[in-house]
Amino acid sequence: MHEKKFSLIEGETFTIDELGKEIEEIVDSKLVDLTGTKERVVAQKPSPDQDFETFTIKFNLDDLPDFVDVVATTEKKENFEDYDFDKDKLKVRLVSYIRQESPENNQSEHVSE
Fold first, then answer.
1. Model-level pTM?
2. Which of 16, 47, 50 is nearest to 31 (CA)?
């Protein structure tokens, strides 16, 4: 549904606020919170010595039960508390739109072909 536009921001670098604003523009819907809900991905196989950290960020849509899930990386830091998501740049690796329920006739005014 939004894959073509999502692919334009994959590989790009943003602050968390910039990323939230890009997602709002792409999905044409306000987000509950521009900074999303962040979770650290702790598995580091097969490269435990990698110099980046991977996070998933969930952006809930304000007017729909759907959400946008982003996988992003940033420079690796010693402790989780050392990450400053307001200032640190995140490199977007993958963006997915997760639909929670199908609208009647499987269409919605938010869905564009």
1. 0.78
2. 16
Tens of pLDDT, residue by residue, the chain (113 residues): 677 889 899 999 999 999 999 999 999 999 999 888 888 776 555 566 778 888 899 999 998 888 999 999 999 888 878 888 888 999 999 999 988 876 556 555 655 54
Residue 70 β-bridge partners: 57, 95
Cis peptide leading into 103, omega within 30 of 0?
A: no
Cα gap 39→17, rounded to integer Å: 16
The amino acid present at 6, given as its one-letter code, is F
Please name the residues in contact with 45: beta carbons below 8 A apart, sequence gap of 6 or more: none
* SS3 state at 104: helix
